[in-house]
């Protein structure tokens, strides 16, 4: 499978659509997208961000699973593909570091942090968390807990967000 999402995509302008196989994409300004959340009160914004995360986990997760199958269930190739595709989709510059029990991700220049007014009440890169929940499950073959441990929109230093992905053990569900 191609390591370039752009090469896989079809710009079907006759029908006004952008496709990767049957998966349809839409290009939207990051400030328009993130402006939804800054227009809600705090508890509604938190609820909407959580819904955004779950939606990405479900739909984006299907993409990640499709890539994983196409890559012969090779974890390293999956992570390389996520790094390459995220950059091409405008989801920032991803860098994974992996140990046996944990996976960490650093994202530079997250479009979600960049598109939200600063400082935010908490981390705002929930779509990345949603994607990592599926990627983490594929990497560890287990349920995982994912947290954004540092969001540059919330803490406003530099342009780096950090995420931790850890397997949830059966004795500690
Ligand atoms: Zn962030």
Walkthrough of the structure:
This protein is of the alpha+beta class and 173 residues long. The protein has a single domain (29-167), classed as Muramoyl-pentapeptide Carboxypeptidase, domain 2, CATH 3.30.1380. It has seven helices and seven strands. The protein has helices spanning 5-8, 30-38, 42-70, 75-89, 111-115, 126-140, 152-155; strands at 9-12, 17-20, 23-25, 93-98, 102-108, 144-150, 160-167. The strands form two sheets. Strands 4-5-7-6 form a four-stranded antiparallel sheet. The chain has a three-stranded antiparallel sheet with strand order 1-2-3. The termini are far apart. The mean pLDDT is 93. Zinc ion binds at residues 110, 113, 123-125, 148, 151-153, 161.
Total E-strand runs: 7
Oligomer: single chain
Q: Secondary-structure element order, as H and E? A: HEEEHHHEEHHEHE
Identify the bound ligands: zinc ion
Look at the helices and sheets and give the structural class.
alpha+beta
The CATH superfamily title = Trafficking protein particle complex subunit 3
Q: Look at the structure and give the mean pLDDT.
A: 93
Which architecture would the CATH scheme give at its second level?
A: 2-Layer Sandwich
Basic shape: globular
- Biggest sheet, spatial arrangement of strands: 4-5-7-6
Regions with little confidence, pLDDT below 50 for 5+ residues = none
CATH topology, what is it called?
Muramoyl-pentapeptide Carboxypeptidase, domain 2
Helix content: 40-55%
Counting structural domains, the number is 1
Largest sheet, if any? 4 strands, antiparallel
Q: In what range is the share of β-strand residues?
A: 15-25%
| CATH level 1 class label | Alpha Beta
Distance between the termini: 35 Å
**Cα-atom radius of gyration:** 16 Å
How many helices does DSSP assign? Answer: 7
């Amino acid at each position: 499978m191609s390591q370039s999402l752009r090469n896989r995509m079809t710009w079907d302008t006759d029908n006004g659509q952008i496709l990767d196989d049957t998966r349809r994409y839409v290009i939207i300004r990051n400030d328009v997208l993130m402006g939804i959340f800054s227009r809600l009160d705090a508890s509604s914004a938190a609820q909407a961000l959580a819904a955004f995360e779950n939606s990405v986990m479900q739909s984006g997760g299907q993409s990640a699973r499709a890539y994983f199958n196409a890559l012969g269930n090779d974890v390293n190739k999956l992570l390389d593909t996520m790094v390459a595709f995220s950059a091409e989709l405008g989801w920032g510059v991803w860098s994974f570091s992996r140990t046996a029990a944990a996976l960490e991700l650093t994202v530079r220049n997250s479009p979600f942090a960049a598109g939200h007014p600063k400082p935010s009440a908490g981390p705002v890169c929930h779509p990345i968390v949603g994607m990592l929940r599926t990627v983490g499950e594929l990497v560890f073959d287990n349920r995982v807990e994912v947290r954004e441990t540092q969001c540059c929109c919330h803490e406003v230093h530099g342009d780096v967000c950090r995420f931790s992905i850890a397997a949830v053990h059966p004795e500690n569900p």
